[in-house]
Structure formats: structure tokens, C-alpha cells
Design goal:
This is Autoinducer binding domain-containing protein. One of its GO terms (biological process) is regulation of DNA-templated transcription. This protein is globular. The longest helix is centred in the middle third of the chain and has 19 residues. The chain has eleven helices and five strands. With 245 residues, the protein is an alpha+beta fold. It is 48% helix and 12% strand. Strands 2-1-5-4-3 form a five-stranded antiparallel beta sheet, covered by helices on one side. It folds into two domains: 170 residues, Beta-Lactamase; 63 residues, Winged helix-like DNA-binding domain superfamily/Winged helix DNA-binding domain (Arc Repressor Mutant, subunit A, Orthogonal Bundle).
Length: 245
């Protein structure tokens, strides 16, 4: 990895360019699968960017074992089904999530927690490969500190850009929301509302993230409820998590 890659990341003018450069750089380092996930101090209001969308189709990002088990320290953790034997403390749901990720290609990887001084959010990167544990330890793991340095630069620049009005809009446009055909009856904004609610955000948080007033957000949400035939947030969230929408 050359210094011009670092320069390109640090000088990225928009979230889309930054994300694309990040994916290309990590791929060149042997890490083709990228999950960037952060939440607020209460473990809510998740912000997710990934090129491995399918693993969140049936489970909300706030339930990702990465947040609970990898972010209590800054230690780099080996992740993926290939390293499950190292983590005997994981419960059935966490193991099921990790094993499902393996069916989508994430078999061996590393979790890189990070948090900037003064930031209310925590999380970081979970980077994956389809390698065997032995190949991963031989080919990728020795570069972990260099990879962590790169990800810290990306994280810092991402937060800088997301703090601006334009960057916040770009970041929101790149957030992941899985598609289900039952949602076709909803408008694009109503779909966004349903997925953000399913990820644990309050109505006020949804409004802030989408750049609209709480009253407008409530109108969209009520309209979506009517179209889906649900009475409240709990029923709507259950439909999302059950794959019904």
C-alpha cells in the first residue's frame, strides 16, 4: 500500500469517493469483505456501510456480535466462523450470526474497534475473507497493525465528512437497507423509515438522520403503517426482522 492511498483517503471530498477508495485499498491488502458499523453511546442509532449486505437481512445491525464482544477494548480480534473456537463465551444467537456470515463468504477476518476522542459513537471495522484460518493467519494477520492504521484514518475522515450537511446526506444515501418485494408498495422514504426503525432508532433519531422534521417523519411512518397493515412500531419491526418486508 503506497502513501498516495493514504493521501487519497485523507483528502476525499465526499463520502462516496472515500468509501470506494477504502474498499479498493482493503481489497489490495487481501480483505475483500468490509463492514463499517458504528452506534451511539447507548448502542442505538446504527450507521452501517458494507459490501456484504446479505448478513443483515435477518438480523439488525445493533445485534451484530461485533458491537457487544469486540468493542469493549481496542484489541484486534480474529473473527469469522474459522475462529469460533477461540470465542467460547459466544451465545447461540451470536454463533448463528457468524455461521450465517460464512455462507456469504465471510469465513476468517479481523475486528478493528475504534473511537475518536470526544466522539459519542463507537464501533469500527469488521474485515473478512473467504480464506481458511491457516491461510488468513499466514497471509493477512501479520499486517494487522498497518490495516488498523488505515482504518483509523478512514474512520476519522468519515466522521469529519458526516459532520457536514452535505456529507450527512451522502452518508445517509450509502447506508444499507435490504430490499424485499413486499416493500414495493411503500415510497422510497417510507422504506427508509421502516428500516431505520427496525435498526433501533427512535422517531426523532430517524428524523435527524434523514434531515427532516420529527412531524414529517411521523407522517411518513404512519403512512407506511397503513400500507403494511400494522398498528405500531413493534409489529413493523417484527415484519422486517422476520423477512416479511
Amino acid at each position: 500500500m503506497t502513501l498516495d492511498r493514504f493521501d487519497k483517503i485523507e483528502t476525499a471530498e465526499n463520502v462516496g469517493d472515500l468509501w470506494q477508495t477504502t474498499l479498493e485499498t482493503l481489497q489490495s491488502m487481501g480483505l475483500p469483505l468490509v463492514i463499517y458499523l458504528t452506534v451511539d453511546r447507548d448502542g442505538r442509532a446504527p450507521q452501517l456501510m458494507t459490501n456484504l449486505k446479505a448478513i443483515y437481512d435477518l438480523s439488525a445491525p445493533t445485534n451484530d456480535p461485533f458491537l457487544k464482544h469486540c468493542c469493549s477494548s481496542y484489541r484486534i480480534t480474529r473473527t469469522g466462523a474459522g475462529f469460533l473456537d477461540e470465542h467460547g463465551y459466544l451465545g447461540p444467537s451470536a454463533r448463528a450470526f457468524i455461521e450465517d456470515a460464512a455462507t456469504h463468504g465471510f469465513r476468517a477476518g479481523m475486528a478493528l474497534p475504534m473511537r475518536l476522542t470526544g466522539s459519542d459513537r463507537y464501533g469500527g471495522f469488521n474485515l473478512g475473507t473467504g480464506l481458511s484460518p491457516e491461510a488468513f493467519l499466514s497471509d493477512v494477520w501479520p499486517e494487522r497493525e498497518r490495516i488498523r492504521f488505515l482504518c483509523l484514518i478512514v474512520h476519522r475522515r468519515m466522521e469529519e465528512l458526516a459532520a457536514t450537511p452535505r456529507g450527512a446526506r451522502e452518508f445517509r444515501d450509502l447506508l444499507i437497507a435490504p430490499h424485499h418485494e413486499h416493500l414495493d408498495q411503500l415510497s422510497p422514504r417510507e422504506k427508509e423509515m421502516m428500516y431505520l426503525l427496525a435498526r433501533g432508532l427512535s422517531r426523532k433519531e430517524v428524523a435527524r438522520l434523514c434531515g427532516i422534521s420529527p412531524n414529517t417523519a411521523s407522517d411518513y411512518i404512519k403512512s407506511a403503517y397503513r400500507k403494511l397493515g400494522v398498528r405500531n412500531r413493534v409489529e413493523a419491526v417484527q415484519m422486517v426482522h422476520n423477512g416479511e418486508i
